[in-house]
Amino acid sequence: MNRLSGKSRINGIADAALFLAVLLGVWELVYRLAIYPTYLFPSPAMVASSLFASVNDGLLQIGILTSLTRLLIGYIISIVFGAAIGLAMVKSPYLGRTLRPFGVGIQSFPSIAWVSPAILWFGFNDYAMIFVTVMGALFSITLGTYDGIRNTSPTYINAARNMGARGARLFFFVMLPAASPKIVSELRHGWSFAWRSLIGAEMIMATLGLGNLLMYGRELNDLSLVFAVMIAIFAVGQVFDRLLFENLQNKISQRWGLSTEPIGL
Amino acid sequence: MSKLELRGITKYYETGNGRLLALNNISLTVDDGEFVCIVGPSGCGKTTLLNIIAGLEKPQEGQVLLDGRQVNDTSPDRLMVFQEGALFPWLAVLQNVEFGLKIAGVEKGKRQEIARRYLEMMHLSKFENSYVHQLSTGMKQRVAIARGLAMDPQVLLMDEPFAALDAQTRDMLHAELQNIHAKTRKTIVFVTHNVRESACLADRVLVLTYRPASIKREFLMNFPRPRQIEDHFVVDTAKVIFAELKDEVQRAVSEQIVR
Questions:
Q1: With contact defined as beta carbons under 8 Å apart, do B44 and B209 qualify?
Q2: Average pLDDT for residues B76-104, to the nearest whole number?
Q3: Based on the number of CB atoms within 10 Å of its own CB, is A13 exposed (0-12), middle (13-18) or buried (19 or more)?
Q4: Which one is predicted more confidently, B192 or B44?
Q5: What is residue A262's DSSP assignment?
Q6: Which of B54, B84, B91 sits opposite A162 (nearest CB)?
Q7: Counting one residue from A and one from B, how many pairs have CB atoms under 8 Å apart?
């Protein structure tokens, strides 16, 4: 099994490299055809030099650090409250019945719409942006906790109770691990929702951060910078999604035998 | 003295179209070290009866007594081996077997030693680090039995543990289970719809009626052990038991078709 997944990993890297090469090639080609003026359509090289320049300035690092800090704070708040609300819904059938459809509804609600009330409540500051981030991720995590635990097979719970597990030990040794595939998959969704919401909020509220750098590039008519920042946003999202969540999910699915192949995107 | 006693167990469910009587006034005693098989048609309430003994379901009337004392809640002294094994997929085989001991607060070295002993008894030592999905159905049931024995229960309850197995694996596990019973002298209550299986394994076979379930007849199996499923006395007795069961199976089938 290990040899197989090692082989498929190499194949995956080769596929990704080929895809990237084609993408850059087409991009360069369209640039050389000069269909659009350079200031509307920079070349890959121009974007790359813009990327290096903004790293040299420290602009990009500050942006990434600021955004990541907000993201982490918002995400941790979402996990704490999401898990708490999810557990309350498990405990109280009334809460479960009423909050679940509400949560499902609010998940398809664009969280960027929370920017307006957030500005009025908190002003143009970090609190407002963190609030929008939380509204993006909270309900994924709430529903993941609730659905994951509620769909735990009663046989597992009966077997564990029969073996003497009660209360906290039943919860931590059985219900939580039984729900872990669902919970981790919703944590992953929550992370990407949080990231999207935050960048949106930063674009509007304009105080440091990567979202703000995007708007800064637009004001300067510097599309190279805009693309460089977009690449950074993409990279930050991917690094966590791949290194943290995908590895975690693959570990769980391999252990549970949910799929023989690692889940890729 | 009787190890396990049921007194007038009655269980019903409230459904959309009224009350469904599942178990009707079931009383029985099981002696210490006895191997009792309960046979009945599918859906007759065998599992419900076992769940009640295990304390996982509550009857409306009647009591369950262990060593003469009434028991209410579920507890490892009446340990259930479930139909599908009910092993935890997030744990390796060894951790599955030691789970109950961990809950009971047995320290790690001690509980691993116990778990390994029962894994060895079930010929699974090589697989202690495997995960559940890597095992065949027969191996899963052996792990489930090892997990049950590791808790050293007063009574081992088995709910059609071999129903999903192929014939060869089942024959092998019949031999192993009789061997374990001879070695440990555990009291075993074993539920099955397979009449031959019951005749092969049991000291005593109880035949249940179909809905509501009550005890229709019992058969004492005073035959030498170890037995095999094709032994002539097993086959012959199974015929007699099946004759008793046939009407109930027909009732079950016709009712399930009407519905």
A1: yes
A2: 92
A3: exposed
A4: B192
A5: P
A6: B54
A7: 65
What is the rounded CA–CA span in Å between residue A12 and residue A261? 12
Query: For residue A202, how many other CB atoms are within 10 A of its CB?
Result: 26
Q: How do strand B187-192 and strand B155-159 relate by DSSP bridges?
A: parallel
* Assigned token pair, B245: 């069961």
Distance from C-alpha of A198 to C-alpha of A184, rounded to nearest angstrom: 21
Residue B52 phi/psi, 5-degree rounding, is -70, -40
- Yes or no: say if A106 and A225 are a contact pair by the CB < 8 Å rule: no
The predicted-structure confidence for A173-191, as pLDDT tens digits, reads as follows: 999 999 999 999 999 999 9
Give the dihedral sign, CA B45/B46/B50/B51: negative
C-alpha span between A240 and A250 (Å, rounded)? 14
**pLDDT value of residue A259:** 64
Task: Read off the pTM.
Answer: 0.80
Tokens standing for residue A35: 């269909």
CB A129 within 8 A of CB A185: no
b/e burial code for range A39-54 (CB count within 10 A of at least 16 → b): eebbbeebbbebbeeb
**Distance, first Cα to last Cα, chain B:** 44
Give Cα separations from A160 to B3, B52, B115 (angstroms): 24, 16, 16
The DSSP code for A242 is I
Chain B: closest CA distance from residue A146 (Å): 19
Phi-psi region of B10 (alpha: psi -120 to 50; beta: other; left: phi over 0): beta
Please tell me which of the candidates B74, B102, B133 has its beta carbon nearest to residue A162.
B74
Give me the pLDDT at residue B247, please.
78
Q: Do A163 and B90 touch (CB under 8 A)?
A: no
Paired sense of beta strands B61-66 and B18-31, if any: unpaired
Query: Which 3 state secondary structure label does DSSP give B9?
Result: strand
Q: Work out whether the CA dihedral A227, A229, A231, A233 comes out positive or negative.
A: negative
Torsion of CA A102, A104, A109, A112, to 10 degrees: 100
Question: Cα separation of B193 and B212, whole Å?
Answer: 16
The label of the residue with tokens 């048609």 reads B41
Rounded Cα–Cα distance for residues B140 and B168 (Å): 15
